[in-house]
Amino acid sequence: MLHSxxxxxxxxxxxxxxxxxxxxxxxxxxxAVKQAATSSPHVLTNWLQRNGGSEQLVEIKGVEMETxxxxxxxxxxxxxxxxxxxxxIDIPEKLVITLDRVFExxxxxxxxxxxxxxxxxxxxxxxxxxxxxxxxxxxAPYIQALDRQRGRGVQAVESPLLWKDEELEExxxxxxxxxxxxxxxxxxxxxxxxxxxxxFMASSLxxxxxxxxxxxxxxxxxxxxxxxAVQASIVHLQxxxxxxxxxxxxxxxxxxxxxxxxxxxxQYNSEHETxxxxxxxxxxxxxxxxxxxxxQPNSRLLLNYGLVDENNPYDKLQVTITLPNNxxxxxxxxxxxxxxxxxxxxxxxxxxNKPLPPALLPFMRLALATTEEQARLVVFxxxxxxxxxxxxxxxxxTPSPPSESAGPTNPVSSASxxxxxxxxxxxxxxNLLAGYMHRRLNSYKHSLSKDLEIISDPLSTPRQRIAxxxxxxxxxxxxxxxxxxxxxxxxxxxxxxxxxxxxxxAVSVELxxxxxxxxxxxxxxxxxx
Length: 529
What we know:
The protein is about 45% helix and about 10% strand. The protein is mainly α.
């Protein structure tokens, strides 16, 4: 009887999957009919040609996405076979939306973005008012194309800025992306509250819009959606004035796929006054085109563009370690750190290709030093070159695309990892770092193996699948760090520095309980974040 019930349940599940699959196919047919009748992708390309754009070597096609996506996603593909060096996209500057065009003045554009609003907020507000004018807007075909994408990246997922908070927690618990999303949303809210100031500061520039002031014309939820769509579409142009550095380029993203390993970039051609994309490799007819998105980790790619690149060589997690300022040797330790470009509150990158930064263990040795002699004996690598960081918004400075040996390079030497001060200090350092890695691993909702199940499950939603891809990579980095700590412990034991069970257990590949991880850190005055 039990066997019969199991068979019946199995049949019901298969029947349900078949019904869902049939319904999805029906939805795609209905969608295709509606799109053909209302907003064909050809509207955008025809608009470009009517307004002085040349015939492109690309076209927009609706591409069927992986299981769980009911509607084809508009994607930019090669219209014919492409050779390296051919110009794929060539958009006249007059058909690109930048701040100097929006405000018709470089001075006003710089004034506004140096005050309370970001470039993205100004561009978002502009497009919202333009959309409100309907078909009368010059930009209507482009706005229509953005609406069709709804800020979705090439993996058919919107930025987590548009996810419900409970979904964010459910899918990304333990990932630093959760905090980043909430911080970004708080920033968007602050900018929304400043929109009326822009209206009054530049009222003469908005006189063509016979509508209410921003916060009365647009509720916050609509502004948030528009902001996410603009963020997913923005291009960072190099070698241009402030008013041109953030650009919305027709045929650019999100129609154009972003890749961490492509060598092609959308660039401003000053001679022709156009935005161009030059092919970096061969493309077959119908193949989706890619451009480099800059050296961004997957956490940033998901937040900005709704995508995760599993081949991203720039992926990383970060750990921030703070020395206690009540340490009697605090000033001495600070003086030891300064020549190497390090501070008493230091952030280290746990890289995908080099999970254990060579300066991390020396920093921990210094943190645990109990005498001035020990502190001054700590060997540090050469100081890293200056780095520029942004507060989480898309960067305004993008370096050159990657070379063949692309990937994050750490300027410090791993030799410093092999310079322990004493058995006791080395054991404590390894215990604390291993405890921190375990604590972070235990903060996720489920294991790495569960991530793999979600990714391969045909019934997973696009958001579930992309979240699992991200957390899988993050957990892999943390586990690689534990592996490196285990090697370091073996090296110490081999030198006769430590043969204790405690040192080995701290770097075990077996994950201890969350309580055990916390216990390794609880007694320390050194703070980890």
